[in-house]
Automatic annotation (TrEMBL):
Extent of Basic and acidic residues compositional bias: 377-393, 400-414
Catalytic activity: [protein]-peptidylproline (omega=180) = [protein]-peptidylproline (omega=0)
Residues covered by the PPIase FKBP-type domain: 1-39, 68-154
The protein's name in its UniProt record: peptidylprolyl isomerase
Organism: Cuerna arida
Region (Disordered): 377-436
Taxonomy of the source species: Eukaryota, Metazoa, Ecdysozoa, Arthropoda, Hexapoda
Keywords (A to Z) from UniProt: Isomerase, Repeat, Rotamase, TPR repeat
Length: 436
């Protein structure tokens, strides 16, 4: 708890006006100040105290690194009061995991100025989480202290600072990075790079003719690549959104239709998914993956209908049972086995009328529900007939059609069920180009 004496000239205090009645104009003031407590700067995204900064040496200027910047830092990592790591490292901000940098350090570096030295208190969820770092003898769920010095950085140009050619170049650059990470099965980093490419390509009216054609094709490819990564990461709703964006630009895209079908199938919407797979099959009748997924959709739809039928059957039985019980009730206490009658001397006629009206309403409801049940059974019967016809049309007699696209090494998208179909993409090693 530091105590200090501060002397303030009048122009830094109350100036010519003073503060009546105790402080006259043009007064120099002396303050005794005691530091009781203070809070470190919270740099965590949700302001949950997960990343706290204490500046040890202020930086120079006002510029700070942005996502994608090349940074050169010196770091010291402490666990339980012991230094477990000290080194100089250069990496691209946003890809620090490849250089053994936790996300908490990366988030904090976006606020650093050149030559700044700060101490960071990082909670485990922004450090190495439940995996820990066995190579550094850091157990799971450990909080860490990092001392970071930002020696140098090269800021990545923002989208608004580039012309159309520059944006196109950056779009290609980040797409290639994403593809390289995809090949290594580093899906989160690949997804991040594809999204970065989209940032440079999404909004620009300055492209003309050939440049616009190339921009559009590159943008579609990156949306489709994002969808593929998201399906593999089981983020099906966002995958569907990425497919929709690609299909807005190219409504007939086989990859866009196929991957949206996959996403809908995983989201429990086989009827909607089937429409996309059928469209793919119309465009390319030889697409075995689409044909197989249609059969998967038919099976899922059949299972859903069976569940609905059982639900309705149970519902009908409950109402019928209630109707039977009410027929036996005689204004007494219902025990579940017999009726104990309590005679009523007043308003018997009114009560009988109310009972008759209620029974009439229940009978009408049961009648409507039975009619609906019959309609559903009839629809299911016709659906089964249609399903048998579709299976006959798509069946080829070749057992290879039931294998996945990855196992067959075909040039078609998908195959082997919805999950296996998501395992490859021609544009990752050609991700996002060519046919579906």
């Amino acid at each position: 708890k530091e105590v200090a004496m501060l002397t303030c000239r009048s122009d830094y205090a109350y100036g010519k006006s003073g503060s009546s009645p105790k402080i006259p104009p043009d007064s120099t003031l002396h303050f005794e100040v005691e530091m009781i407590d203070w809070q470190k700067e919270d740099l965590s995204p949700k302001k949950d105290g997960g990343i706290l900064r204490n500046i040890l040496q202020p930086g120079e200027g006002h510029a700070t690194p942005n996502d994608g910047s090349m940074v050169d830092v010196h770091l010291i990592c402490e666990y339980n009061g012991k230094v477990v790591e000290e080194r100089d490292v250069t990496f691209n901000l946003g890809e620090g995991i490849e250089s053994g940098i936790p996300q908490g350090v990366e988030k904090a570096l976006e606020k650093f100025k050149l030559k700044e030295k700060s101490q960071l208190e990082i909670k485990s969820k922004y450090a190495w989480g439940n995996e820990g770092r066995p190579d550094l003898q850091i157990p799971p769920n450990s909080d860490l202290i990092y001392t970071i010095t930002l020696n140098n950085f090269e800021k990545l140009k923002e989208t608004w600072a580039l012309d159309s050619d520059g944006k196109l170049e950056q779009g290609k650059f980040f797409k290639e990075k994403g593809t390289n990470y995809f090949k290594l099965n580093k899906l989160k980093l690949a997804l991040k790079m594809y999204k970065k490419a989209i940032e440079y390509l999404e909004f620009d009216s300055g492209f003309v003719e050939e440049g616009e054609i190339e921009r559009k094709a590159l943008l579609i490819s990156n949306h489709l690549n994002c969808a593929l990564c998201l399906i593999k990461l089981q983020e099906f709703t966002e995958a569907k959104e990425q497919c929709n964006k690609a299909l807005e630009l190219e409504p007939t895209s086989e990859k866009g239709l196929f991957r949206r079908g996959q996403a809908n199938l995983f989201l429990g919407e086989p009827e909607i998914a089937k429409v996309d797979f059928e469209t793919v099959l119309k465009q390319d009748p030889n697409n075995k993956a689409a044909a197989q997924h249609i059969m998967v959709c038919n099976q899922k739809m059949k299972e859903q209908k069976a569940k609905e039928k059982q639900i309705y059957a149970n519902m009908f039985e409950k109402f019928a049972q209630k109707d039977r019980e009410e027929k036996d009730c005689r204004f007494g206490w219902w025990t579940g086995k017999s009726v104990e009658v309590e005679k009523m001397e007043e308003n018997v006629e009114e009560i009988e009328n109310q009972k008759e009206l209620k029974l009439k309403e229940h009978r009408e409801f049961i009648k409507q529900m039975k009619e609906r049940k019959e309609r559903l059974e009839q629809e299911l019967k016709y659906k089964n007939l249609d399903t048998n016809e579709e299976k006959t049309e798509v069946a080829t007699g070749d057992n290879e059609e039931n294998k996945s696209e990855v196992d067959n090494k075909t040039e078609k998208e998908g195959g082997g069920g919805a999950q296996e179909a998501a395992r490859r993409d021609e544009d990752a090693g050609g991700v996002g180009t060519g046919r579906a």
